[in-house]
Structures are given as C-alpha cells and as structure tokens.
Amino acid sequence: MYNKLMNCLGSVKEKINFKPEVALILGSGLGDYADEIKIEQTIEYTEIKDFPVSTVKGHKGRFVFGYIEKTPVVIMQGRVHYYEGYQMSDVVLPTRLMGMLGAQKILLTNAAGGVNPSYHPGDFMMITDHITTGVPSPLIGPNLDELGTRFPDMSEVYSKRLQNIIKNCAKDCGIEIQEGVYVQFTGPNYETPAEVRLARSWGGDAVGMSTACEAMAARHMGLEVCGISCITNMAAGISKAELNHKEVQETADRVAKSFKELVTKIIVAI
User: Fold this and answer.
1) What pLDDT digit, counting tens, does each position of 141-199 carry?
2) What are the CB-based long-range contacts (under 8 Å, 24+) for 167-171?
C-alpha cells in the first residue's frame, strides 16, 4: 500500500508543485464549492496512477489545488466510498495522499441522516466523535510505519482546538450549529429503523456512509481533524417518510450557500 501511495504522490508531483496547508473533502451539496476558489490547478483522479475513482453521481472526481483567501488548500471534489467496492485502504488513500502532499489539517464534510430527534433537515452538526463499529478499520493489515504507529490513540480524533474555531465561525455566520457523534455504516442502502435505534443507543446523533474512516486515517498520520455533517434527512424510524437520494441532494442544495460560507470561514481561521 505504501508503494501505491508513493506512485500516486509521484504522479501528482509530476503535474503540480504545490504545498497545501489544509485539506478539504467535499460532501453532497458542496461539490461546486471548489469551482469558486482561486484555482491554481485541477487534476482528474483518472490522471493519477493507481488512484481509486469515485463512481457516485454528483461527485466530480478530481483534486482542486488553490487558495481560499490566502490559505493554500487541496480539495477533494468527489470522495471514494466503501460501498463502491473498494478496499478500505483505497477509500482512505486520497486522505493519506493529501497529508503526504503537505496538508497538516483536514476538514471533512458530508451529508448525513439525523438520528437525534431534536435535529431537523438542513441543520449542520459539528462532529465531536465517531463510531466506526459498522465498517472495517482502515488501519487493518500491515501498519504503514512511514505514516504512523501501529496502535494510534483515538481519544481526540476531532481536534478540540478546531471545534472551538468551528463554533466561533458558526456564530459569526449566524448559524446555530449542532454538536454530535457520527456513526458510519457501509451503505449504499440507507439504514434500517433497527440500525438507527442501535446507533442512537450507542450515543450516535447522525449516520452516514463516509468520513469516520477518513478521520481515522488522518489521525493515524498526525493530521489535525475536524468535520461537519449536513443533516439532509431524518434517519429511518425517526422520520416516517421513505428515504431517497433525491431528498438528500435537495436539502443539501437548499443550505449549500450557508454551508459554503461556513466552510470558508473555518478554512481561513484554522
């Protein structure tokens, strides 16, 4: 796997000489955010040797290198999901690659289902912790000693320093941000009502199909991590409505302007 990472790194460095400070992964509804920054260069995933390619509709599938105000960033415009059939080590390869390119901090975003009954579609939830019991750990297998230790501490996956910054940025934007625990399941099916009750009994506030595995890989290699979920729907059993991707996309699009404003403030502040 390390050789594969080095192949990807070499392939990117052949195309651009750019050192980002912050990495950003765009979830549903934020896909076009990268088009609005000061772009230095874009690289399609298909141009990178050994790189996994996103197959999800609405995910463009490219890296965008550029500046958000004065902050140099690398943006993943379209992530890879476990449910697409990739090994978990491939799912987190892009996260690791962005760290190897120089990023010291990463902001993860996603669309998620609300498990906490006090949430509403369109809410933003700052991730304070996560539960990954439902998916394989990205650290299974031979340890990549070049990146991190065999048994990494996960007592503070989501940086408390960055959480404080997010709260202040949300206040500045006039956004009432929720705080909660994100539970990752495999997808692509939405969770059953029983699985949602299980997530709630574990202490989960939102459920989704990405993000937590990326956060684990980032922490393993020493990146400072923060994450925000856009609650696009209430999870099965919390809501009586049938779930579908169209509803998720519509809610994400409805709050996209506020989400973009918040993300910009966070990137500049961290």
Assistant:
1) 999 999 999 999 999 999 999 999 999 999 999 999 999 999 999 999 999 999 999 99
2) 167/126, 168/269, 169/262, 169/265, 169/266, 169/269, 170/124, 170/126, 170/262
Q: Three-state SS for 252?
A: helix
Q: Which domain holds residue 182?
A: 2-269
Rounded to 10 deg, the angle between the 160-172 and 256-269 helix axes is: 130
Exposure letters 123-157 (e unless 16+ CB within 10 A, then b): bbbbbbbbbbebbebbbeeeebeebbeeebeeeeb
H/E element holding 108? strand 105-114
Tell the residue number behind the tokens 């009750």, with chain if given.
197
pTM of the model: 0.94
Q: What is the CATH number for 181?
A: 3.40.50.1580
Number of structural domains found in the chain: 1
Q: Coil, strand or helix: which one is 196? A: helix
Question: Is the distance from CB of 162 to CB of 270 less than 8 angstroms?
Answer: yes
DSSP three-state, residue 181: strand
Cα dihedral 53, 54, 59, 61, rounded to 10, equals -10
Active-site residues: which are they? 28, 59, 81, 83-84, 111, 209-210, 233, 245
Residue 44, strand partner residues:
62
Q: Which of 217, 191, 203, 173 is nearest to 76 (CA)?
A: 217
Tell me which H or E stretch contains 129.
Answer: strand 124-131
Give the integer Cα–Cα distance in Å for 255 and 258. Answer: 6
